[in-house]
């Protein structure tokens, strides 16, 4: 996969249905559980609720949504990569952008059953700071934190 073809861009509602399709597939694949919200409600959430507190960026390859991240300077709310495009650096590209725009500290939650996400976050410097928070899916989850550490080389 040619890295040059991955475009990171601010979310545009013209990508709503593609984004929700990808998000639902990726989440279902990760946690082995069907999405509890209807497709229409999910689109509404993406277009009207999520943007109130979070910036949303998409990863596109040839106008196809292959990833999405919703974040602010302190927290990552959502990060999903298309199941056919995982492990080629898209998540890292999205994460690097968010880290660069962060306050120097980010928190996020991931499901305990999603071991791929745990490995990904730990590989990128996140540490576990909590467990067992409430979520709609009623699945145990893990809270992670990343803190910017200035290295000698920077």
TrEMBL record:
<keyword id="KW-0808">Transferase</keyword>
<dbReference type="InterPro" id="IPR050276">
    <property type="entry name" value="MshD_Acetyltransferase"/>
</dbReference>
<dbReference type="Pfam" id="PF13673">
    <property type="entry name" value="Acetyltransf_10"/>
</dbReference>
<dbReference type="InterPro" id="IPR000182">
    <property type="entry name" value="GNAT_dom"/>
</dbReference>
<feature type="domain" description="N-acetyltransferase">
    <location>
        <begin position="6"/>
        <end position="153"/>
    </location>
</feature>
<dbReference type="InterPro" id="IPR016181">
    <property type="entry name" value="Acyl_CoA_acyltransferase"/>
</dbReference>
<dbReference type="GO" id="GO:0016747">
    <property type="term" value="F:acyltransferase activity, transferring groups other than amino-acyl groups"/>
</dbReference>
<protein>
    <submittedName>
        <fullName>GNAT family acetyltransferase</fullName>
    </submittedName>
</protein>
